[in-house]
């Protein structure tokens, strides 16, 4: 299973809000930057709002960061948009042959390694801030 593209789109949205604070930041305007439909942007901004990463007021055009970009990690964003479930970044095939000793035992051998790999990735995401990402974008 791949990490949902919602993660990259959410980072794009938040970086845009950080870099261009003076614009209206409507879903249509953001969609133009992302290259997607405004409905997709509204769905993701709703998730980001519920996670406390952005402020969106109903009936008022625009969104803004709810806290400083230095205080928002990529892990915060990853978790906000439910990019991938816990221990499900890596999938194990569904129907190995139970009569085969490898088929019967492969999941038990590799799932712990997959879990550790996902935790390591999440640890890295927790060390990178939105501010660091935004600073890498030339404007």
UniProtKB/TrEMBL annotation:
One of its GO terms (cellular component) is cytosol. GO terms for molecular function: DNA-binding transcription factor activity. SUPFAM superfamilies: Winged helix' DNA-binding domain. Pfam families: Rrf2. It comes from the Bacteria. This is Rrf2 family transcriptional regulator. It comes from Paenibacillus durus (Paenibacillus azotofixans).
